[in-house]
Amino acid sequence: MVNYKIKELIIENFKGIDSWYIDLKNKDLTILDGPNGFGKTSIFDAIELVLTGQIRRTVQTKITDGNIGYEDYLYAKDQNQPIILKVTLDDAENNYEVTIGRKIDHLSNRKKENRPEFFKSTIHLLDDIEDDLSNQNKKESFKEIIDLNDFENTYGLYNYIEQEDSSHFLKRSETERMAIISSLFNIEKEINERNKLEKAKNIMSKNLRNLFKRIQDYEGDTNLPSENPEAEKIEYFKLLPDEVNQKESWDNRVINNLNIQLKETYFNRINTLKYLISNFTSFKQLLMNNHINELIYSDYKIEQVITLFHHHQSMEKINAEHYLKRNLSDIIKSLKSHEILNKHINWDLLYEHFNLPVTREKLDDRLKLIQNLNKHTNQVSSMIKDLLDQRERLKRSFESLIENHNVESHGIDNSTCPLCGQEWENHANLLKVLSNQTELLKMQLDESSKISEQHVKALYDDIINNLVIDIETYSSKLIDDEIYSHLKMYDDKGFNKEEVAETFNSLGIDINDLVYKQLDNFDDLSQKANVLKNRLKEKLNDNNSFDSTIFEESKDLYINTFKKDDSLIDKIQTSKFEQKKAYINYLYFLQSNQKYQEYTKLIEKHNKLKEAYESIKRSLDVYNKQINLHNSEMISEIEVPFFIYTGKILQHYQRGIGVFLYDNRQNESKINTLRFVPPEGTDHDIVHTFSSGQLSATILALTLSLNKVYNHNGIKTLLIDDPVQTMDEMNMVSFIELLKNDFKNYQVILSTHSDQVSLYTRYKFDKAGFQTTRINVREMSTR
């Protein structure tokens, strides 16, 4: 039996501490006093960290979300040095001591590893507390140094009562409380085995449900035979020719998932094909009837035939002619507007279609000369030149309006100036005044502008005026825009002349007298369409015997499978249809046999799994009964001292004296929760009614009870961080008396910010003959 106490402690570079050595040799009571914020809790944190590898309250209250990291490590005072913690545990009765060191080398941490709840450390077994922490004395875990059962979890129950959340155990769920308390009873192995069986049982239960559902699916399948079916073997053969366009799945060697519904579907498809071949002539007649009706009731298709039949193959040439006309129209606009330097004038196109009196090179030279003269004109001349251009364009537009429209009927007077609105005697006088004004403006031009104007005039006189006339004459002979629009509308939706010709030739209908051969107008299109519709109606065959209910499926076979190729239809052996259905029937029986075998295997598997499941359930009942028996005995062992200690510390409160442990058992074989209740008046847990001071007193009583009953082999040190924070004076006095009288063999390390509590506690322990010491943390921090 070992009973360790803390002998000495070294803390380096931890939180606000540079380097502290704390001597606790042979001290029954150590009081850490001084104001808050000088390191009392830091000493407790250092002890917890070196012994358990973490600070529990930080891990349980982590607030950092996601993968957020930090630049610095919270617990290191000097970010360039590691944290070093060492503690010597002394077992005076057995004359044995052990020194444990823990090192947190945060310098290599990634940002995520600098989170407050992250403690990446190494643990070391030292010969002396002054030894360095090295790879030679590094160990794998605390348990490798001291073998204490579940020490990391029990430390908070046996040894340490925190200042910030002394009631953390009480605030756990009732089930979690029982699980933690159960770990003290050294039945961890049995609980782990029980948990493995529980996990296996749950997996088996899920598999049983899945198997049962699959069995039900099989039993609900109308294709599932009541017994193992047998069928005569049929050899595979291919019924359809290899050239068919679309493969029929019923003609495959292997047909997967063949159930009775799919089999019937395939049989119907084969019967339809058989009927189609047997009544092929009637089918073709009905197909033609449908095609004729489709044409008759489609004005667009009829008009498309009449409009495009003669011109469809010329559409590429017609499109090119239309685009040429459109380009020439744009060029004419530029030329008439005297925009001869416009980059969009396609001179190559003009030289391609027209005979100009000068070569392309000479024309380019004259245009460049005009361009250079324009560059040297002054700003005023440039503005006047632009004004003249605008006046000229307006004048031409006005003349065009007068020439092409009945202006008087639109209220337009051709003797009214289009620029200022002034009225003149007649149109001739108006034009004369406009010309005079133009000449006056030209007199304001500078020399470069005048020369440029002369060259432009010469160019128009020599070449462009005649060219404009030639372009207009040539364009007038190109395709009319309205006729082109009509042709394009029908051509855009696709037109197959060969297919149209074949249709009408097969019907014996001559359409040459109806289709347009000249592209002058389509005024009689509707009359021509009616004539063609009447010719089509005459070709309808009203005496057709083909079954209309299967026509669409027959049509699908003919068009999509046989590509409208009558020769492929002729290749099919009609005598093979029944044999093909027999082969499909054979495949169906094979798959039914396989399905029946799968069904019987599932039944067998389900029965075996259920037998194993029942066996595991029986084993679990034994485990649960024994574990709950242990739990019940454990509660019985601690409930009396716990009731006495809560009564001594709490004294009398509104619902009596003391607190009971209540296991809330469902039955004698199932105890999995733990509740703390007052002695009378309610079965509600005290966590809902006690004040923070009363809860702190309760957890103190629980810690002392657990130590009294179970802590016979471990660390005999009680660390209590400032209990006076929440407890009143009466509770504190009772607690000190309890410690002094019932825990004489324990080392107590207690912190307080109150000088009176420090003095009173040391006085009571000194008077009882205990060895005490006082450590003032403010004095240590200023050394």
From TrEMBL:
Origin: domain of life? Bacteria
Q: Which InterPro entries match?
A: P-loop_NTPase, Rad50/SbcC_AAA
Record carries keyword Cell membrane: no
Keywords for the protein's UniProt record, in alphabetical order? Coiled coil
Q: Quick one: signal sequence residues?
A: none
Stretches that traverse the bilayer: none
Q: Which residues form the Rad50/SbcC-type AAA domain?
A: 9-219
Keyword Coiled coil carried by entry: yes
Query: From which residue to which does any coiled coil extend?
Result: 187-214, 599-626
Assembly and partners are described as: Heterodimer of SbcC and SbcD.
Q: Which family does it belong to?
A: Belongs to the SMC family. SbcC subfamily.
What's the protein here called? Nuclease SbcCD subunit C
- Its source organism is Salinicoccus jeotgali
Gene from which this protein is expressed? rad50
